[in-house]
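In response to reviewer comment 3 from the previous cycle, which asked for concrete evidence that the modeling workflow produces usable outputs, we include below a single protein chain processed end to end. The sequence was submitted unchanged, and the resulting structure tokens are shown without manual editing.
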Amino acid sequence: MFTSLRRIFSVMAMCIVTIVSYAAIPANYYSSLAGKKDAELKNAVSMLISKLTSVSSYSDLPRYFQTTDVYPASSRWWDMYSNIPLYAPSFKGLNREHSFPKSWWGGSTSVKAYTDLNHLYPSEAAANQAKSNYVLGEVDMSYKVTFDNGVVKVGYPLRGQGGGQTTVFEPDEEYKGDFARTYFYMATCYQDYTWTSRGTAMLQQNLYPTLQPWAYEMLLRWSREDEVSQKEIDRNDAVYRFQNNRNPFIDFPELAEYIWGNKKGHIFNPESGGDPEIPTGDPDLIAPTNNINLEFGQVALGQRQTAQLFFRGENIRGSMDVVVYGTDKAMFSVDATTIPAASVNNINGFYLPVRYNPTATGQHVAKIAVSGGGIVGSRVINLRGECLPVPQLSVIKATPATDVTSESYVANWEEPGDVVDYYIVNRTRYVGGEQYTEQLTAEENSLLIEGFGDSDSESYTVQSVRLGYTSTPSNVIYVSSSGIQGIEADKPLILEAFPGGFRFLTSDVLYGVCVYDISGKLIASLQEADGYTEVLLPPGVYIVSAPGSTRPQRIIVR
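The workflow returned the following structure tokens.
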């Protein structure tokens, strides 16, 4: 037994009458699951929960977190990764954490999983970096633990866990059930995704069971031992108001047992405990729920933001009417003002595009009224957006890499004076005469770069992102396994040998380049040289210099 902040605040939450009234589970929301079992049940759950209304943007997640992840009657962030007290609305020191690593689906930012609040949580930055994209598991304390902040641990897995990986991430005891139910949701909602090699340690490339046996057995145990808390219930309701979908493994904790556990083979029915008959009744609009907030976040003047409003109902008759009204109704629009009953009654539902097209800066609010179809009264959807001037982003100054090892280094840069949503690190790798560039995202003004040992040398530039606008790339920082070369030079001199000569690796044009042999005799001179200019020479040792570089470089030609 243990006492935790979650338990204390959960009790407080039940005793406090809150101003916000969160949504309850709507009638018939889960009726499509009735009478199903095993793989058929999992597919039905996936079909139900994958029809979500994506939040406005990745950058805007901290605003949603202020509703979903702050302790009740407090402004303290509810961080499941650390016990460091940090307070909203400041997000300093925190990251937007994909508890189910985005690299497992290849890192695409255009898929719904990227901004799905059901697996996104605020996390203290150091804990998030230590977690990396490791699989969940239990750390074997007889081995060296690589990270332990008193809440989460990273280290070697217990026997039978890890799926062949040598490092796992272990949550705190009081949150293991939270993570288990989050992973049940992700493995079901996105069961048709293709997983990368790290992801397949915990996931299979199939629709059922999707989770590896060792993984679902461990997660089922975590879910049984750490039961659903008031925190999870409140968060599930709050996310539903933003996304129009729920985590059914929180609403029905035993659902996981029907799919993976001790109730496989049994028929699941949320309404009648196993009766396969699907209930019927009066017209019922399941989504959108009444008084939902459709948030468009911050948009730069001249840009627009589109959200997808999800409709699903049962026994809807005739068409449904959609009307935009309110103070700033001219700033918002919908693609259709009537929706046929067949579209709403379809088990896959219907997505209605809603657009925020601001023509002036400031905060804008309006509403959508949905009526007709045989439902009693109308549903109201609140629309909110803020238009800001186009950001003027200054050029970032990249600084020398630190903690350089044969396998990794930390890229660094100075924080700009501008407001920034996040950073892009443009990593360029030079391997065997070829150049490979990739873009990485960062929350803070540094980023751990791994896989360095696969490169002959590397360089990076940094850009800031705000409201979809990107700054001009920073200066170039070059890194090699022997340290940093030419970082203070206006035009760094980096060379790469190949059989019969050498080439320049530089993003700038160098002028007045001179090549000497080991005795100091001038062998060649170039008026100018840029990236991948090649010089052919017989085997030997040569000294290359250029005005503006920090020092001459020695190159061995074989």
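The two ends are 68 Å apart (CA to CA). We consider this sufficient to address the reviewer's concern, and the full set will be provided in the supplementary archive.
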